[in-house]
Amino acid sequence: MGWRSQVLLGRLRDQATVIATVAVVTFVATTLLGTFAFLLDVTSNDAVDAAIARVPDSAVSLEAVIRVNKKDAAAALAAADATFAATLGDAPTDSTTWLTGRMWSLPRPATDRLAPVAYPASTPLLPEQGELVAGAWPDRARDADGRLLVNVPDVAAQRYAWTVGTVLPVRTLGGQTDDTWVVVGTHRLTGSSASWSRDLLKGAGHDSRYPALGTGGRLTVDAWGPMVVAPDALLGVGTVETAHVVTTPDLTGAARGTLTQVREELESTQARLSAALRDAGSSGFVRTRLGQTIDAAWRELTVTRVGVVVVGLLLVVLATSVMLLAARLLGERRAAEGELVAARGASPAQLRSLAVLEAAAIAALTVAVAPWAARAAYTQLADAGGLGAAGLGTPAGVPASVWVACATVASVLAVSLVVPSWHTTGSSSAAAHAGLVRAGADLALVVLAGLALWQLLDYGAPLTRGPSGANLDPVLVVGPALVTLGAAVLALRAVAPLARGADVVARRSTSLVVPLAAWQVSRRFAAATGTTLVVVLAVSAATFSHAFLTTWRTSQVEQVDLAVGADARVDGVRGDHLTASADARAALADAPPGAHLQPVVDRPGIVGRTLGPEQRSSGFEVQVLAVDTGRPQALRGRTEVPWATLVGDLAAPVGAPGADDAGTVLPGDPQWLVATMTAGSFPSWVGSLHPVLAVEDEAGVRAWLSVPELYLDVPTTVVVAVPRALGPLRLVALSAVVSLSGTAPAEDGDDAPTGRLGQVWLAVDDVHVVDRAVGATSQEQAAALVPTHGTPVELVTTGWQGNATSGGTVRGVTTGPDVGPYASGEGVGPGALVLDGSFDLVAMDGGNGRLVAHAWPTHGPVRALVTEAVAERAQLRPGARFWVRVGDAQVQAYVEGVVPYLPGVPRGPAMLVDRDALGRGTVEASGTASLLDSWWLTASDADAPLLAAAVGRATDGAATVRATERTAAVAGPLRAAVPAALSLVSAATLVLVLVGLGASAAAAIRSRRLELARLQALGAARTSLVRGLVGEHTVLVVVGALAGVAIGYGLSRVVTPVLTVSPDGRRPVPAPLPAWEDGAALVITGGLVLAACAVVALLAVVLVRRASGALLRLGDDR
Amino acid sequence: MTATSTARPGPDQAADGPLVLVEHVDRTYGSGHAAVHALQDVSLEVAPGELVALVGRSGSGKTTLLNTIGGLDRPDAGRVVVAGREVSSLDEKGLVSLRRDVVAFVFQTFGLVPVLTAAENVGVPLRMLRTPVAQREARVQLLLDLVGLGPHAQQRPGQLSGGQQQRVAIARALANSPRLLIADEPTGQLDSETGRAVMALIRAVVEAEGMTAIVSTHDPVMVALADRVVHLADGRLVDA
Questions:
Q1: Are A1114 and B109 inside 8 Å of each other by CB?
Q2: Is the CB of B187 inside 8 Å of chain A's CB atoms?
Q3: pLDDT digits (tens, 9 = 90+) for A726-783
Q4: A835 and A914 assigned to the same domain
Q5: Which of B92, B132, B136 sits opposite A1022 (nearest CB)?
Q6: Is the CATH code 1.10.10.10 the one for domain B13-238?
Q7: Do the chains contact at A1019 and B131, CB–CB below 8 Å?
Q8: Do A245 and A64 contact (CB within 8 A), yes or no?
Q9: How far, in Å, CA of A183 to CA of A164, rounded?
Q10: DSSP conformation letters of A664-687
Q11: Is there a contact between A86 and A265 (Cβ–Cβ < 8 Å)?
Q12: Predicted complex ipTM
């Protein structure tokens, strides 16, 4: 056995306690940091998988939209399947296929001019999303006679009196091919229309205005479908028009690295599909959001990782300080031994080799055990900290990265253990610190920390943004830890004058215990700094972490609030808006009191200062948000000024009297509106009008109903289908495109207008509605039922206003039951609503004019809140007017105020207006677009998810619930690591303080054992000495805690807002407000102080023994 | 066994009775074959004002006897009475009181608190008694002057020589005017000249303060200065 082994074994035998203490410190510190590494590893590898497993299928599915071009459908499908299989690798998938056959002509009924058409199709949604009305679903392609088995829409069967067994001779539209279908059943499609988006008629079953082949849309026919067939019926050549292959991967259990591979393959999927389809004679494209989904998850993961690393580094600094304390313990214990061995001829190199061997042994032991302890700690964290619930459970075994991290940490700590042996005096870290102070190195560290802080504030986040998104920047990430360390070192300098003051006070005291404690601190200041530094770092890290956690949580929640804009929202409203409104509100029929649903406009628009009907200047895109500003309590998102104040005046018209409910109520549940409409002109002209009628439901949702073309001077009975609605409808506006052609006839009569101006008028009279309960299925049937089942509608003809536009000039419109000589002369009844507008007839020759009238007073410019981005770009100030193009209209707006952001639109140029005001403004500006994009729900957090889901189902929209998003934002797979890490810091600081202070106190008591014994011999009571030791450490701990709190507070004010970033790494909107809870800081600091003092007291009670005579006599250092 | 060999009778021995009474004291360290009998049936009386030199070879039990008298160690058998207090049965509080009021120690290793100045070290016993600051400072100055270290009052132990440190230790021992001074080889770490000076100082302060002193020593000078010499061998008192 070599001499080194002998010495080490001897140390192990005689100094077991101190070596065990150092080993415990190393183990605890390594385990804690290993837990962080575990957290990072699991987050990096499993969080994206867990997050993607939670997104809807539509976010990860791949869809091949194939135009089969009458080629072999089976080959096209195989090409798509092969392409997707290559992209998704080994991930299990679920594929569905939609096949839509070519259009066939059905037998022409005697009453129809053109033969109706229909298309066979097979869909994966049936039979689940279909109601079998009669017969059965096709169980095979053709029967024994070679006839294609079809299940037809019930509406078609009713229309043409088809029954099960009806044989339909069909022919392709070009007439080249004949076939025979046999009806085996009838059905009605159910489910949302969104789910039928891949159907040719979007699940409607019937389109009465399907463009007839070869007519360019001028002629329309009835189209029916899907004629449901067995899937194999369409797998031949020349049978399929289009195909959709939807493949949804299940990435939940995918092996690590699968996502990376999938992401890379996605880049070439389109090219590969095109090539494969080309070989099959077809063409198509890939539709998927999987790439964006993965990219977004990765971006978010990077941001989360930065947060974890930042707090992890704080812990590294603290752990290293604790380790240096432990090294002091070891160094002081070894000082005499080192001198003795040196006196016996050992060289410094030999002494150092001993230290290295010992540290290596401790590190090796730690590395063998700590990863497993870290795994156990992570398991606890996963269970208690919500990581498990976020899908970030403990993986099998210990990941390689954790082994590496533990080995690195243990090595660093081992180095800090060895450092004291390089000092010839066997001094400690404390002495080293004193040296640093003398050399000004601590100030250099402060300067470095200042630079780091400056960089951090300059960048605004601890990450940089590159072409591929946010990247972790090592220098910026180290910044907070460096700032904390620099501040702590600076604080130590401030502690020295305090200690000197205590020294002076102690001299004038009559007692012994407290002055002795003060002297120990002030006169052994270098030794005391180690303890104080640990406390400063621990308290600052813990309070800062708590403040960061609070700020981060609050900010994430506020970002969600602002991004969602309401308690819940349902976006992507499809189908007819009145029907959607009916379904949405019906879904809330049983909602608890307080729940409210409002239609919202949320769409891009164009803003320009000089934008206008005549200027035609370019503008820039803004997000136009229109809500019911009479319900500001529905708006979410933190603002300095309440939304109620900001939006309070938006509904009011500018310079015009207030609007009220107006228009003509359509009684009952109208399905058809039948009226006589007459158009005319003066002087008499050749032309026509294309009118549209605006009807509005109780929720303020407006729909425009098309009226067949009216020829001038030809009274026409129009039958207009009214969409299904809920509650009474009101006819609120009328708009018509006026087309004139030919030349003006010679003017005659004294009352003829002169010059270019003429009159075009439109009269609406004899209005009836046919109720839905009547069950009229066609316009003809509705018209025929008016005398018996029609309900007359008494038009409100007063209060209407409007305008006539021709050649860019807007002129007034006269409205009312009897507006001029033209109406009476054409036999229009006294109850008619007549619009009479002035037009530049010459300019309209060959062009169009627009005649608009509405039941409300002209609203004028729309008041708007604009974001700073809009105000800056368009140079707008409150009170300024500007133009906004939204839908098909250009509306003049008035800047009511400038705000940094808007509900639901956290970033970018945006404007908020009152929805009703905007709607009226667009109508007045000749717009006929139906403005409805979303439904915003006001409900409690408990009710919102169910209610939003109900509305989503009813309207085919995508529901976003604020409460759910809030939870995901702070506890979702991609986020849960941050609060877990910050919580871990609090626990870790406590553990490290206990271990560090315990080691420090043990070292202090051990080194002063003789001194304490002498004081006992002089008459000091043991309890007094214990009190003195506790008091001495209390002074250090309290001073350190005060400094730590100050640093924690400073960091929370300065650094926390910088570290709190949005999920994609940008500065959050709204800007985070640094949170500092005095109560929590007091509890954390008090807890750490009490815990530290308690461990010191415990050690003092145990270690301060009765004075030993032998010790006193020999000054024994055993 | 009873104490032996009195060189010089103490001044009030007869009038006040013994200040220190040790009766049949046994003290054994360890047990079984490893047992070390440090003291065996030791009995001793020391009269007030007497300076007793305790001599014997290393390991003879001198320190054990001094520690037992000073309450730093407890006998296994027998009893020790100091100034009327039975030390061997005193509890912690009683021992503290004994050390503050009756007994003072001077150690071979001086026993000064390193972070305190000479004056502060001397003032430690006075702080334990919560002596008013002015009174304490005056007493400290007096004692430092007494031991000849007045000019070194603000120096810390590390800045003083061994002899100076021991003189500070003696001054500290005298601070609370103890009735019994126990010095365990006070010159053990000093050169002979310094040792002699320290011994002379002890002799002088004992006489000046009228206290009793028990000094273990190998130093023949101290032996010569003692009123009485007590010999210990293998834990037993022996005749000179």
A1: yes
A2: no
A3: 888 999 999 998 888 765 555 554 444 456 778 888 888 889 999 988 878 777 888 8
A4: no
A5: B92
A6: no
A7: no
A8: yes
A9: 5
A10: EEEPSSEEEEEEEEEEEEES--EE
A11: yes
A12: 0.86
